[in-house]
Design brief:
10 helices; rod-shaped
Amino acid sequence: MASDLLNFSGGFTGSGINGTLRLSLQHDILDAVVRTKPFADLARLGKQLPLDQDVKIWLTRNITARKFQIDRLSLRCRIKNGLPEIGPDSIEGTARAEDADILFHPDLPPVHCKELGITWQNDRLSFQLDGPTYGNKNLAGSRVYIDHVIGPGSILAVTIKTDTMLDPPVTRLLRAYDINLPLEQQSGTTAAKLQLTIDLRNFKVTTKGSFTTGEGAWSWQGSPFLSHKATVLLTDDQVTISQADLSYQDILRVGLSGTVNTSAGQADLVGDIDNLTLRRGNDTLVQAAKITTPITVDFSGPTTRINLQRFRTTIILDGREKHIVLASLPAIRPFAPILQHLAIEGGEADIVTRDMQRFHFSGSADIPNTLLSLAGLPVTSFVFQGLSTPEETELSINKGKINATITDRIKVRLDDYLVTVAGTGACSTFKLTRPVQITGHNSPLKINGFSIPAKKFEIKGDCTKATFTVELPKGVIRGVRTPKGMIIDGENLSAKFANQFLPFVDLKGGVFNVSLRGTFDDYEGYMEFKNVVIDDNEYVLLNNIMAFIDTIPALATFSSPGFNRHGYKVKEGLVLLKCHDRVLNILDFRADGTSINSRSHGVIDLKNKTINMDMTLHTLKSFSNIIDKIPWAGYALLGENGTLNTTLKIRGNLEHPDITTNLSEEAVMAPINIIKRAIAWPFKLLQKATE
C-alpha cells in the first residue's frame, strides 16, 4: 500500500443502525460509500449526516416510516488539516422508506406513501412518492424535494397533484397555507396542481397552483351553484379566474373572470351573464341576457357581500340567509318586467330568503303620475312590505291603505284613495296573466273626467272581460268591459252624477237611470229621469231661451211657473244620446213638465262650445183648461185645440246662441188673430147651436 493511499471496507453498527462502509483515501481525496440494513429511527441517522440544521429538524420531525434503508450513500471530498471539506456536490445517494408518513403542516394529517424513494444529488433531496394519499385523496404525481440541504437557505418544495373534489379536507389544506377560499365542492372533481415553496428557516411559504374543474356542484358559504367548467390560477394569495362557466339552479348562467385576494378576502370580477331569469309561478320577476357587469366580492368577515354594479344590487350571504339589497329600483327596472309598466323615479328594496322559496321583502318606490291621490294631492311615494311563498304573495303598502294577495288570481283592496284614470286604455299596458279582483272602500273614482263618488266599488276581470259594481251615496252602477267597449247601467242615481252626461244644463233633484254602451270617450245610450229641475249652469242656455220668448208677444203663453228663468220643472223625461270626442248628439230629449212639455234634438260640441239644436215646446192641457173655463177667452186665446206649440231653433255659440222660431204667420200675428176669433166666436157658437 502506498503511503498516499488508504482503503477500508467493512461493516458497522451504531445508533441502532447496521450497515457496510467502504473508504478510500488517495492523497487528500476521500471517497466513502455507505449501505445500511433496514432501520426504524431516522433521527439517529440524521444526527450523523452533514445536513443543514433546518433540514435535519424537518426530516426528523416530519418523516416517519415502518422502516428506512440506505441503498447507497457516497461521499467524495477533500481532506484539509485532517478534516473533510464537504460541499454541495460532495454527497449523493439513494434510500427508501416503507409505509411512510410525511407531515407537511402541524395542523394537517400526514401524506401516506406505500414507499418513499429518496435521492440525494446536487445538494437536493428528492422524494419519490409511491401511492401517496392524503386522507382518501389520491395524490399520484405529487413531488417533494429540498434544495440546499448542506448549506444555509434550505428550501422545501412540494408539488401536490390531485383529481378529486375540492371538499373540506382539501380546503382545510389550502387554509393551512393561508389560501382562504370560501368554497366547497360537493360533486364532480377538480384537477389541482399546487406548488408550495417553504423556507425552512422562517417557514415563509410561497404558493403557485392551477385548478381545473368540469361539471360539478359547489357551495359558497351554504349557497349552492353548479360549475360547468372553470380554470383558476393561484400565486400566493392572488387567485386569477381565467375562465369559469357557472350556474345557479335554473335562475342564472354566468361566465366569471377576474382576481381574488384570499388574504384580504376581496374579489374583483367581471360577470358575463348569459341568462338571468327569476320566476314566481307564471310571472317573470327578473329577466336579463347577454349582460356584462363588474362584480366585487367581500368575504373578509363572517358574511360574504357580492356587489353586482350594473344592477346596483348587493347579495349578502351569511351561511343561513341570503339578503338581497336592491339599492335602486330604476337600475333594476329594465330587467324586471313587472316594473317596466311603472315610471319609477326612485326606490329601493330589501329581500331576505333562506331557501329561495320564501321571500320576505320591504322597501319604497317613488312613482310620479300615479292613478291615486289623497286629500287633493297625488300619491307618489309607496312604502311596502310583504311575504312571497310558492303558494301566494302578500303585500301591504302605505300602512295598509293598499293590500294585495297574489295566488292564481290577484286581489287588491284600496282604502281612502281617489282613483283617477285618464283614458280607458290607461292600464292596457298591463298584461294580466290571471284573474284580478279590485275592491275600493271610501275610494271615489274619476275616469276621463267623470267623477264617481263611490262609497265602495268592486272590479273583477281577466285579460278578456271585466265586470264592476259601484255603490254611490245614492244609487248603484253596474257594468261590463270587454275589448270592444263597456256596458254601464245605473239605477236611482243623483242629479249631480247624471249631470256629467248633460253638461250644458244644471240638473237638480230627482232620480236618474242611465244605460250606456261604448267607452268614456265614445258612447251612446239613454237616460231616464223623474221630478227634476233643469236649470242654467255656466252656459245660461235656459235664460237665453226665456229672454227670447219674452221678446215675442206671441210666445208669452210659454212662460209659466214651471218654465221660466228659475228653471224647468220636469215630472219625467228621457234622453237618447251619442257622444264622440266631447261632441254630444242629442237624438231625442223628451221632457214632460208641470206646465210645458218639450222635445229636442241636435248636436252640442262641448270642445268648441257650439250648439245646433231644435226645441219644440207644448203647452199642457191642464194649463189650457184654466182658460177653457172661460169659453170665449179659451177660444180667442188658444184656438180650437186648446194648446199652443212652437219650435225654437238654437244655433251658434253655446254661451250666447242665436234663437229663432218657426211660428206660422197666424201665430206671429197673434193679437190680430185673437181679435178675429173674438168677433167670430158668437157666430161659431150660433153655428154649433144650429147643428
